[in-house]
Amino acid sequence: MSWKSIFLSILSMILYVGAAVGVVYVFKYNLLMGFLGILLLAIPVFVQKKAVDEASGRFDKILAKYLVPAFAVVATLVIILMLYFFLK
Protein backbone atom coordinates (compact mmCIF):
# COMPACT_ATOMS: atom_id res chain seq x y z
CA MET A 1 0.00 0.00 0.00
CA SER A 2 1.41 3.34 -1.06
CA TRP A 3 0.70 6.29 1.22
CA LYS A 4 1.71 8.64 -1.57
CA SER A 5 -1.04 7.21 -3.79
CA ILE A 6 -3.62 7.56 -1.02
CA PHE A 7 -2.51 11.14 -0.37
CA LEU A 8 -2.72 11.98 -4.09
CA SER A 9 -6.18 10.39 -4.30
CA ILE A 10 -7.44 12.49 -1.40
CA LEU A 11 -5.80 15.59 -2.89
CA SER A 12 -7.49 14.82 -6.20
CA MET A 13 -10.89 14.64 -4.48
CA ILE A 14 -10.30 18.00 -2.81
CA LEU A 15 -9.21 19.53 -6.12
CA TYR A 16 -12.30 18.15 -7.87
CA VAL A 17 -14.53 19.90 -5.33
CA GLY A 18 -12.55 23.13 -5.57
CA ALA A 19 -12.56 23.12 -9.35
CA ALA A 20 -16.30 22.43 -9.47
CA VAL A 21 -17.02 25.33 -7.11
CA GLY A 22 -14.73 27.57 -9.14
CA VAL A 23 -16.34 26.64 -12.43
CA VAL A 24 -19.84 27.31 -11.09
CA TYR A 25 -18.83 30.75 -9.81
CA VAL A 26 -17.07 31.61 -13.07
CA PHE A 27 -20.13 30.53 -15.09
CA LYS A 28 -22.28 32.78 -12.92
CA TYR A 29 -20.31 35.88 -13.82
CA ASN A 30 -19.13 35.21 -17.37
CA LEU A 31 -20.29 32.43 -19.68
CA LEU A 32 -17.22 32.41 -21.95
CA MET A 33 -14.82 32.33 -19.04
CA GLY A 34 -16.94 29.54 -17.57
CA PHE A 35 -16.20 27.35 -20.54
CA LEU A 36 -12.52 28.14 -20.14
CA GLY A 37 -12.88 27.37 -16.43
CA ILE A 38 -13.79 23.81 -17.31
CA LEU A 39 -10.09 23.42 -18.09
CA LEU A 40 -9.58 23.66 -14.31
CA LEU A 41 -10.94 20.14 -14.12
CA ALA A 42 -7.79 18.91 -15.89
CA ILE A 43 -5.67 19.54 -12.79
CA PRO A 44 -7.39 16.91 -10.59
CA VAL A 45 -7.31 14.46 -13.50
CA PHE A 46 -3.53 14.73 -13.70
CA VAL A 47 -3.22 14.28 -9.93
CA GLN A 48 -5.49 11.24 -10.11
CA LYS A 49 -3.41 9.77 -12.94
CA LYS A 50 -0.29 10.20 -10.82
CA ALA A 51 -2.12 8.45 -7.93
CA VAL A 52 -2.99 5.50 -10.18
CA ASP A 53 0.64 5.26 -11.31
CA GLU A 54 1.87 5.29 -7.69
CA ALA A 55 -0.67 2.71 -6.46
CA SER A 56 0.86 -0.57 -5.40
CA GLY A 57 -1.64 -2.20 -3.01
CA ARG A 58 -5.19 -3.37 -3.46
CA PHE A 59 -6.82 -0.60 -1.41
CA ASP A 60 -5.00 2.29 -3.04
CA LYS A 61 -5.58 0.89 -6.53
CA ILE A 62 -9.32 0.61 -5.87
CA LEU A 63 -9.33 4.08 -4.33
CA ALA A 64 -7.40 5.69 -7.18
CA LYS A 65 -9.07 3.87 -10.08
CA TYR A 66 -12.69 3.59 -9.00
CA LEU A 67 -13.62 5.59 -5.93
CA VAL A 68 -12.01 8.90 -6.90
CA PRO A 69 -13.75 9.11 -10.32
CA ALA A 70 -17.09 8.09 -8.77
CA PHE A 71 -16.63 10.71 -6.07
CA ALA A 72 -15.74 13.30 -8.72
CA VAL A 73 -18.94 12.71 -10.68
CA VAL A 74 -21.20 12.70 -7.63
CA ALA A 75 -19.49 15.64 -5.93
CA THR A 76 -19.52 17.74 -9.08
CA LEU A 77 -23.23 17.17 -9.65
CA VAL A 78 -24.09 17.85 -6.01
CA ILE A 79 -21.99 21.01 -5.89
CA ILE A 80 -23.42 22.36 -9.12
CA LEU A 81 -26.99 21.73 -7.96
CA MET A 82 -26.38 23.13 -4.47
CA LEU A 83 -24.70 26.27 -5.75
CA TYR A 84 -27.38 26.72 -8.41
CA PHE A 85 -30.07 26.86 -5.74
CA PHE A 86 -28.02 29.00 -3.34
CA LEU A 87 -26.88 31.50 -5.98
CA LYS A 88 -30.27 31.88 -7.62
Structure explained in plain terms:
88% of the residues lie in helices and 0% in strands. The radius of gyration is 14 Å and the shape is elongated. The model has no long low-confidence stretch (mean pLDDT 86). It has one domain (3-87). The chain has four helices and no strands. The chain has helices spanning 3-29, 31-37, 42-54, 58-87. The N and C termini lie far apart (45 Å). With 88 residues, the chain is mostly helical.
Structural class: mainly alpha
Number of helices: 4
Mean pLDDT metric: 86
What is the terminal separation in angstroms? 45 Å
DSSP strand count: 0
Order of helix and strand elements from N to C terminus: HHHH
- Percent range of helical residues: over 70%
Q: Compute the gyration radius: what is it?
A: 14 Å
Q: What is the percentage of strand-forming residues?
A: under 5%
**Unreliable residue stretches:** none
The biggest sheet, with number of strands, parallel, antiparallel or mixed sense and barrel status, is:
none
